[in-house]
Every structure is written in C-alpha cells, then in structure tokens.
Amino acid sequence: MTDTTAPAVQLTDITKRFGDVVANDSVDLTLDRGSIHAVVGENGAGKTTLMNVLYGLYEPNEGTIAVDGEPRSFDSPRDAIAAGIGMIHQHFQLVDNMTVLQNVVLGHEPSSRGLVDEQAARRRITEICDTYGFSVDEHLDTPIEELGLGIQQHVEIVKSLYRGADTLILDEPTAVLTPQEVEGLFDVMEALTADGRSLIFITHKLDEAMHAADDITVLRDGSAVGTVDAAETSQNELARMMVGREVLFDVDSAEGTPGEVALTVDGVTVRDERGLEQARDVSLSVREGEILGIAGVEGNGQQELIEAITGMRTPERGTVSLQGRDITELSRRRRIEDGISYVPGDRLEEGLVQDYTLVRNALLSNQTMDAFSDGLFLDWQRIGDHADEIIDEYDVRPRNPEATAKSLSGGNQQKFIVGRELERDPSVLVAAHPTRGVDIGSIEFIHQRFQDMREAGVAILLVSSKLDEVQKLSDRTAVMYEGSVVDTVDPDDVTEEELGLLMAGRARDGTERAASGVEGDA
Amino acid sequence: MSDAATGVRSLADRIADHMLDASVLERVVIALVATALALLIGAVIVAASGYDAVEFVSSLVYGAVGNASNLAFMLRQSSMLILTGVAVAVAFRAGVFNIGVQGQFVVGGFAATLGILFAAPLLPNSSISAVPLMALAALLALAAGGAYGALPGMMKVYAGANEVITTIMLNFIASGVVYFLLDAYLRPEGAAAPNTEQFPDYVGLPGLVFESPSFSILGLGVALLTVAVVYLVMDRTGFGYDLVTSGYQEPAAKYSGVDPKRMIVRTMTISGMIAGLAGALFAIMILGYYSDPNTFPTFGFDAIAVSLLAANNPLGVIPAGLLFGGLDAGGQYIGFTLDVPSELVDGVIGLIVLFVAAPELFRAAGRYTSLGGDRE
C-alpha cells in the first residue's frame, strides 16, 4: 500500500564511508511528494555519493531509505528503478548511434509474441511527451548523436518516465545546457511536479536552486548543514552555508611586499569542451611576492581560467604573459619549464598517476628538469631522493616512497602534490583548492608554505572555494561570477558576508548588479 | 558474512597476494609448469581423439628444439614475433591500439626490397656492398613503416578516426597495393609468380651458428637489441615516462606537459618503425626477394597475442615470443609429419597459451579487485 501522505523519499541518517573517508555523514533528507528538492554543495561535498546511495549504486554503511513511507534497501539501480526512482546522470547514459526510440526502450522493450512491439513503444512515448510538453517524439528515429544536448537530456527524462519513475534525481542537469535550454528544463520540471512527481535537483548554482526548488538542502564535507525553504532564503545565506567556516589556527598574516608584475592575464575568454564560454574577458595580474585569491562558487569559470594560464587549455581570446613575455602560445611543458607550477584541483585524475609509486609520481611534471636526468637518461636515484624529501618535508603518510598514489588518503595525496609543485622553485604558482580534503594541521602547514613562497618572491594565484582560506592568505581577492571578475577587493576591507554577496553576483550592498569584467588590477 | 565465507575470502586473499607478489623467477616457473600442465591435458585430448598422444607431444617438442635445423626455424619465427611483438607493446603501453603492425611490416619489407633492388646496380657487385645495402634497406624500412604507422595516428588525432578500425583497414590496403605494384612493375619478364627478382647473393645475414638458409643468429640479435633499446627508452628516459604515463592516465600525462595528440602520432610512428624493421628482416633474412604479401605469415597479428601475454612489457615479449615461436615451429612440424588434424594442433597450442596467460590474467584481475588487499 502506498501512503500518499508520506514523503516520496525519506533518507535518514545516511552514512557512507570509503575506507577512512566519510563521504556522507549521517545525512537526512526528506523529499515531499510533488515538490522539487535542491541539493547544493561544493564538488566533493557528497551530493553525488548521496544520490548514488538512493539510486542503489552504493550500499550505505548506516541509515535507512524509505520510499512512499516504506523502508527499502536497494542492491542495484534495478531495485531503485522498480521502486519508481529514476536518475538523470550528468553524463548521459545514452547509446550515441542508436535512435531515440531504441534508447528509450532499451532494456524495457515492450514485446508481443517475442518481438519488440515498436508501435506500442511509440504510443507510450508520444503519450509521455504530450503530457509534459516534450518534443522528443519528433525525433524518435534520429540517432542520439545528431541531437543537441538539451534534447538528449529530454530523452533521458522520457526514458526514466517510460520506466515508470515517480521520483527523478537530476544530477547537475544544467551544467551542459545553454541558458535557453535551462529555462526549458525548468518548465519541464514544473510540469512534472504539477503531475505529482517528485524531483531531486543537484546543483552548485545557487540562483538555479532558489529559482527552481521548493526546499534546499546544503551539503558540506559530507554532512547536511541544513535544509531551508527556497522562498525564504537568500543566495548569500546559501553561499555561507556551502563554504562554511573551518576553525583554523591563526597564521601570522604578514603583509607581502609585492615586486614586479609576474603574471598578467589580459582579456582572456575561455570555452570548455562543449564550446560554452566559461571565462569571459578576464583581466588580472599578480605581482612577485603577492597572493591573489580568486573567490567564487565553483563552476563560475575559475577552472577554465587557470587552465588557460597553466597551458592546459587554449584561450579563445586574450593574452597570458609571464614577466612581460607573451606566453599564450606556449605549450604546457614550456610553461612548466619557465617556472609556472600548478597544483590542480583534480588530484585523482591530473595531479597523480594513481597506479604509480610516489617515486614515479615525483617525476610527474618534472620530466624535463635537468636535476632529474643526466643528459639522455633519467636519474631514478635522484628522483627517489626527491620523493623522500617531499615525503619528509610535507609529512606524507605512509612514509614509503614505494607506496602507490592510490593507496594514500586524499589529504596525503594533496600534500605530496603541493610538495612536488612547490619544491620546483617556481616563479609563479597557480593552486586550485590546495587544501581540499586535507586535515587541519596540514592545512596550516600548507598555508605556512604558501606564505613562505610569497616571502621568497613567488607570485601566487590561489583559487579556492573556502572563503576563510582566501581571506586569510590573499593580499587581494578577485571575485568571479558567471565567468567574469566582478570585483577585486582588499580582504581586510571586506567581510565574508560582502564576499558572499559578490560571489552570488550581487553588489556588496546586496543590490542586483550585472556581471561585468572589472579590471582586476588594484 | 558467515565464517565459511570469511575463510574462503581470506584464502582467496592469500592466493591473490601471492600471485601479485610473484617475482620474475617465480613467474617463469609458473609459466613452465603451466605449459607442462597444458601439454598433459592436451595429450589426453589427443589420445581421446584416437591419436598417439606420446608421439604428438614428442613431435611438438622435437619440432621446436629437436635438432639444429628445427631450433633454427623456431628461433627464426621467434625473432619475427619478438620484433613485431615489441612493436605492438610500444603502442599498447601508450594506450594506442595499433592493430596495423602487419601492414606496417608489409610496407617496411617492401621499402627495404625497393632499396636493395634499385641501389644494388649502383654499387660494386661484391660483398663489400652488403653492409651499406642492408643499412639502406633497414633505414628505408624504418621510414616507410614509421610513416605507415603515423598515418592512422594522424587520422586519429586530426579526424577522430578510431585507430583500431583504420589500422585494420590499412593492413588490407598495404597488402593490396604492394601486391599490385609487385605484379605490375616488379615481376621479372616471363615470371609466373608475382615475385621480385632475387636479391644479389651477397645480401643476407650470415648463418654463423646455424646452417640455415633462412635464419641467422644476427636476426635474433636485431630483435633482442630492439627490445633492449625499447626497454631502456621506456624505463629510463623522460620520453618513455611520457609515453607510459599517457597509457596509464592521460589527464595526468597532459597535466605533466605531454601533448596527447603529438604523443599518439609519435607512438604510432615508433611502433610502425619497429614493424617496418621486422619487414626488412623478413625480406632480407627469410625471403631473399619479395612476394605477394597476402601469402606472408601473419606475424603482425600473432604479435598482438605475444604482446598481451607479455602484459605489454618489452622484456616480457622475449619469453612470450620464444613460446609462440616454439609452438609455431612444433605445430608446423606435426603438420607435415603426423596425420593429426590441424584443428587439433591449433587447439592444443591454444590451450597452452591459455594456461600460460591465466596467471597473468589472474594478476590483472587481482589488481582490479580488492582481493589481495592494498598494494603498498
């Protein structure tokens, strides 16, 4: 029996651990029938893990799942689908060279006398499309690869509805869409809830959460910080909840004595793989012995900007200069050799080769450094010594250079990367979230290192979604919102509330403002 | 979990641990025992099919290592398999699937042939021309094989064409075009078969240890030297680190300054060069002329199995190549001495490969599951 007054989904006390890492820490979430519940949080806050628990991909270590008031346990997505839960993944689960029709019915083909009953499938799909205003039925015989991402997403939703989903999980559905397509999606979401279906909407874009959702739950570091009514909250309240505060030891924040301009970014526009403009006409400069912090909610163009600086990505327009020399056309490797170190935000994929030992990882991004080769051949002895040094200096555990990177905890991986990039003696250091997932003691240590580097005259560009980190370390703070630097402020003259407002695309006094490329030089 | 299940699990863990930690020596022993075991089972199957199992097994061994001439034949096949195997391994290690070694091999051999046929008249007709002529042939083979490997590399990078498909197609194209050129332009007047004329007598590798017209220990030397160079480059140079890292984890390679597109083209070029060199060795050492590539042994395809058996490790290609060469020689010997169907011979050989590969598969499975605990 389905209890129609019970919440569509009720997660109670969900805890999910991976080894020592707690991805979800007794999280509660209640999805009311016919409502949209947004789950917001930084990357790594545990949103996707929580949804994978609900979708039967992970088994929670603790906690219970109730659907329509009935306790359930899911061993696989098959169970979740049977319970009426559908998930629209960020990366669509569609077969590119099969038609829309084939994709929708895949695995759930209606059959008559052992043959696929295509006509029945067409009728069902057309019915669904008519109910919710999809135009998917116009493309039933078109291969997926010929359709735009917006339509592909509709196909995903239709596929879930076709399988009888009552509750839909949308994992960052707007990330791949143009603004017009986002509007279309919101219309669809509204139609779905009007029909009594319930939606979980995962995003890290606060305005979208406020615009589309009824309730908003904020996750941070695996815990639910709180659930608020979308109508009664504000973007800066959400921003504060998301980035939170961490108790940090107060490092003596000695004022740097900035020297010459080391790094200049001038009018840089960067597109992502999908061709969407992520950073727009950004200009900023960093001096020797200065830390420029970039604050902003993740996904506002910071990543693409620093990839353009470090040579991972070619900007569409604009120039990047190192000590007055245009390096826009230089390869990533040349930029490393010219003294740009980079602590990447993605340590699992980019910062370390997971199957390599720490010794082999100590060479990553150092391949062409003279210190590690004698002319033709690599000097593994010296590379091994270097790995030992990093392990010693940065307190990497276990203290075993022959351990593989993947056997280390996230914090220790991060310390190893920071050590490797700092020990190269760079003239410019670009760091993305350098203390993410690192324990508090190590955070302090890494911060101390950054300040030492600043004193040694290194120009540091620090991207972090932790406001307190940016506030503490930066000499100047540039705030990015929707791809542009909206303001550059002196951290001593601005409160976290004001920064939160800027990060949410508002002026410091809370009034609406249009995002515009403000010159980043102080 | 019940006690019994826990016990099974911990036993599985222990076995997995042991397999993952096996030393090189242990692996060789494991491979030998696996071969013996497979031969035993193969013998039972042969006997059950109504043939003489003892004769079968002894012929298989005799055909490989029974006398000097059989051994020479085995080493000849092994040399080719080691060279083409290492060509495959280079590409696979970098995460590029070069299935086109056969085509690069054919094109390389053809380029070497052209070099010898066209340059020989320009040089004195005596043995002092041998070394420069063969050096020229080798260089041309490297260049042609490399170019024929680079082509699918560039097609992948600039047009998004899957290299597995393009290299397979290019195999057919190589054989077809080379056959056409041989048939139309290089066949001597009045000759029936589409073969080129014979190379000058002085072109060829001296037998030295073995009195075989088609095998020289120098050929094996070329193969082993190539393996040594590839191993050194992979393990001891920055370029090798770039290459192997690209295969393990491309985003990390890119982060560290590797240009992924250029790396794909370079990898394919190097792989093709080695395959081309194998082609030159085939033309000079084995044939002494060039003929219809469609009739050539499929070293370039067997090389894929050799490389996989070696876990794409260049050093591992040596024992793997020797095993395949030995089985090939033994199998062929059975084919023309015993009245056993060739399907049965192939079946038993397949069984041996399966048994030898199984511990490696087990090891690979161990790496991808949590069995065996943390590997630190």
Automatic annotation (TrEMBL), chain A:
<feature type="domain" description="ABC transporter">
    <location>
        <begin position="263"/>
        <end position="507"/>
    </location>
</feature>
<dbReference type="InterPro" id="IPR017871">
    <property type="entry name" value="ABC_transporter-like_CS"/>
</dbReference>
<keyword id="KW-0813">Transport</keyword>
<keyword id="KW-0677">Repeat</keyword>
<dbReference type="GO" id="GO:0016887">
    <property type="term" value="F:ATP hydrolysis activity"/>
</dbReference>
<dbReference type="GO" id="GO:0005524">
    <property type="term" value="F:ATP binding"/>
</dbReference>
<feature type="domain" description="ABC transporter">
    <location>
        <begin position="9"/>
        <end position="246"/>
    </location>
</feature>
<keyword id="KW-0067">ATP-binding</keyword>
<dbReference type="InterPro" id="IPR003593">
    <property type="entry name" value="AAA+_ATPase"/>
</dbReference>
<dbReference type="InterPro" id="IPR003439">
    <property type="entry name" value="ABC_transporter-like_ATP-bd"/>
</dbReference>
<keyword id="KW-1278">Translocase</keyword>
<protein>
    <submittedName>
        <fullName>Putative sugar ABC transporter ATP-binding protein</fullName>
    </submittedName>
</protein>
<dbReference type="GO" id="GO:0005886">
    <property type="term" value="C:plasma membrane"/>
</dbReference>
<dbReference type="InterPro" id="IPR027417">
    <property type="entry name" value="P-loop_NTPase"/>
</dbReference>
<keyword id="KW-0547">Nucleotide-binding</keyword>
<dbReference type="InterPro" id="IPR050107">
    <property type="entry name" value="ABC_carbohydrate_import_ATPase"/>
</dbReference>
<keyword id="KW-0472">Membrane</keyword>
<keyword id="KW-1003">Cell membrane</keyword>
<dbReference type="Pfam" id="PF00005">
    <property type="entry name" value="ABC_tran"/>
</dbReference>
From TrEMBL, chain B:
<feature type="transmembrane region" description="Helical">
    <location>
        <begin position="129"/>
        <end position="151"/>
    </location>
</feature>
<protein>
    <submittedName>
        <fullName>Sugar ABC transporter permease</fullName>
    </submittedName>
</protein>
<feature type="transmembrane region" description="Helical">
    <location>
        <begin position="163"/>
        <end position="182"/>
    </location>
</feature>
<feature type="transmembrane region" description="Helical">
    <location>
        <begin position="270"/>
        <end position="290"/>
    </location>
</feature>
<feature type="transmembrane region" description="Helical">
    <location>
        <begin position="104"/>
        <end position="123"/>
    </location>
</feature>
<dbReference type="InterPro" id="IPR001851">
    <property type="entry name" value="ABC_transp_permease"/>
</dbReference>
<feature type="transmembrane region" description="Helical">
    <location>
        <begin position="28"/>
        <end position="51"/>
    </location>
</feature>
<keyword id="KW-0812">Transmembrane</keyword>
<keyword id="KW-1133">Transmembrane helix</keyword>
<dbReference type="GO" id="GO:0005886">
    <property type="term" value="C:plasma membrane"/>
</dbReference>
<keyword id="KW-0472">Membrane</keyword>
<feature type="transmembrane region" description="Helical">
    <location>
        <begin position="71"/>
        <end position="92"/>
    </location>
</feature>
<feature type="transmembrane region" description="Helical">
    <location>
        <begin position="215"/>
        <end position="234"/>
    </location>
</feature>
<dbReference type="GO" id="GO:0022857">
    <property type="term" value="F:transmembrane transporter activity"/>
</dbReference>
<keyword id="KW-1003">Cell membrane</keyword>
<dbReference type="Pfam" id="PF02653">
    <property type="entry name" value="BPD_transp_2"/>
</dbReference>
<feature type="transmembrane region" description="Helical">
    <location>
        <begin position="344"/>
        <end position="362"/>
    </location>
</feature>
